[in-house]
Design goal:
single chain, alpha+beta, 2 domains, four-stranded antiparallel beta sheet
Length: 234
């Protein structure tokens, strides 16, 4: 239970703007909107620019007393800003109010009755000529509490993967969730299928954003929301 508590506390601190909440410029955000959860992209931009513009930041660095200093959180915010600029209300800067996870479920359910004919096969490429191009990045690995051959791994943007043969073969466990990042996994063994919790989002580089904590009661085959769920704009 203590491990699950750590996961919950971690992701309480990782909403949409998850890598910049502790930055000093956030003190310039309008307090009344923070209380009512009505902050817009324009509010974030104004606070950020009011803080950093006087420092004349260039590519994430500024000059202080003749020394080049890193502007902590500057590049992360710029990535976040770029992501949201085309997704908010262009007039008000308001974020979408729907749950990204639930919206995806609605889209998929509306397409369930579509008939798609034809046989498909991969045209490649399926290999890399050198180095580790395309190998991806893993954020976490969780071992089954009683079965040494079963492990779960969470990737930065590729979801959850599971092995039941000690790592020889891996199966994706969250294909119904598009481009989901995973930062922690908790497995609770039962007499039947495992109960699995995943903390979504990429905590290291904000490559993907969090939709909250999801739960599976069938060993990772299907997932449902929990009490900690983020809307698209949180």
């Amino acid at each position: 239970m203590s491990r699950l508590t750590i996961v919950l506390l971690l992701f309480l601190a990782f909403p949409t703007l998850n890598t910049t909440n502790a930055q000093p410029w956030t003190n310039l955000l309008p307090a009344e909107k923070i209380k009512t959860s009505e902050l817009t992209l324009f509010d974030y931009q104004k606070a950020f620019n009011d803080y950093w513009t006087p420092k004349k930041v260039v590519n994430g660095f500024y000059i202080n007393n003749g020394e080049k200093v890193k502007a902590g959180g500057w590049k992360q915010f710029k990535r976040w800003e770029w992501y949201w600029e085309t997704r908010v209300n262009p007039t008000t800067g308001e974020f979408p109010s729907t749950s990204a996870f639930e919206q995806l479920r609605l889209i998929k359910s509306s397409n369930d009755n579509r008939s798609i004919s034809g046989q498909w096969s991969s045209m490649g490429p399926s290999t890399s000529s050198g180095g580790y191009a395309g190998i991806g990045r893993l954020n976490c690995i969780t071992f089954h509490p009683t079965d040494n051959n079963t492990m779960y791994v969470g990737s930065a943007a590729g979801g959850v993967w599971k092995t039941t043969d000690g790592g020889s073969n891996w199966v994706a466990q969250a294909n119904e969730i598009e481009a989901i990042g995973i930062s922690d996994i908790v497995v609770q063994a039962t007499s039947g299928d495992d109960i699995v919790f995943i903390a979504t989002g990429d905590r290291d580089h904000s490559d993907t954003y969090s939709v909250g904590i999801l739960k599976s009661t069938d060993g990772g085959s299907t997932w449902t929301n929990t009490g900690l769920t983020y809307t698209a704009g949180q």
